[in-house]
Amino acid sequence: MLEDHTTAASYPTRWPAAYPKGYAVVDVETTGLARDDRIISAAVYRLDERGEVEDHWYTLVNPERDPGPVWIHGLTSDVLEGAPLFEDVAEEFARRLADRVLVAHNAVFDWQMIAREYARAEREAPVRQRLCTIALSKELGLPLPNHKLESLAAHFGVVQRRAHHALDDARVLAEAFRPSLRAAAAGDVRLPLLECRPLTEWSDRTAPRIGRQSSGGYGGYRPTSWRPSRKRPACPYPNPGRYEEGKRLKQGMRVAFSGDTSVERELLEDRATEAGLHVATSISRLTSLLVTNDPDSGTSKVVKARQHGTPVVDEAAFGQLLGDVEPAAGSGVAAPESPAPEP
Question: Does this model's pTM top 0.70?
């Protein structure tokens, strides 16, 4: 049973009618951070509309490959060998997610890993909205030194017993989310809900499918370098300068992204590249535009955008702009159509 870390002052006298009717607090441990990595354990705490715990669930998952950074999650090949495959737990997992808002710390990561696993299993995750507790802590103005789960837990006096164990991480997050939710309700704070669009198809890259981990970890991963970088082709168009409000994007403009997005980040970047834009990984005086749903955050990209006077738009506005990108000067061709949004 979860302890109650909510102070009396944070109990709302009136609950906002627009708030969701239930939540699924989720944590997944994975073989890594890349798009072809796999879930190796998952936990769900189901909470009702006011944050009261209904039940919890935990499972190991056999990833059918090297477990990756064992030094982080502690799950070896021997431990996972007899665990069920994701397709074997997909129905039960879905039952616990159905008709609820998915809540996670850095929710875009957990959601993307879950969506990919369901796509591999030729199913859809029954999640339509997610809530990131990092974003919620910003909305509440919590005085945290950083955005780590341990800092959020410490703020509410929650004791972590087994860091990077899915069940304990989900418990800790549920304990911290409950008072956060009540504080939001008491202050009539808008919850930072984002849309979840399930993947409808999946094609795995050529990832080795091996049953034992090597001494150095999967695929050459090391504790300091186990997130593969993704190289994109160079943009063929010169940078025409900054985006101007009310005008069209132009091929060659340098676009950077920051923070959580409704559409998977890689997909947004792919659409920008296909439209003839230059996807930048950092902000400089040459950056044409920053896309973020949280312009008031203190991320390094947002701070640098302010310093350089870089224009900022949210994801929805960027999606509209992508539909009508101006061809580069002298190209003599129309801008490529941006792919239609996922259904």
Answer: no
